[in-house]
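User: Structure please.
Assistant: Input sequence and predicted structure:
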Amino acid sequence: MKVSEFALIALLGLGTPLVVQGSWPAAVEAQSLPVGNFANSTWYVAIDYYNNTLTYYGEHKRNGSSISLQGATVGGNAQRRIYTWRNGDIRYQVAWRPSEPHTIRVQVFNGRGQEILNQLLTRV
C-alpha cells in the first residue's frame, strides 16, 4: 500500500461512528427528559430519573398534601412528550416539549377521564 492509501484508511476510520454496547449513563438520558424541579404559585413538582425509572413528586404548596409516584409510561411524539403515572384510577400526566425544557404542563384526570387539574409550571 502507498502512504496515501494508509492516510485514506486512517481518515475513514476516524469518520466512522463508534458503537458502544450497553446503556447510556443516566446523566445523558436525563438531558432528554423533563428532569428537575418545577413550580408555580400553588404547585411544586420534582421529576427524577434514577435506575431506569422516572419518578414524580407533586406537592400542593398551600396545604402541604403530596404524592410520590414511580414508573411512568411515555407517549406523545418527538415535539411533545407525555409522561403518565397512575395512582389507582387517578392519572397524572406531564406534557413536555424538548424545545421548551424549562416548562411542563401537569394534568390530573379522575377515574372517569375528567381533567381535574391543568397547570403550567416552570423550572425553579
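Residues 24 and 30 are 10 Å apart (CA to CA).
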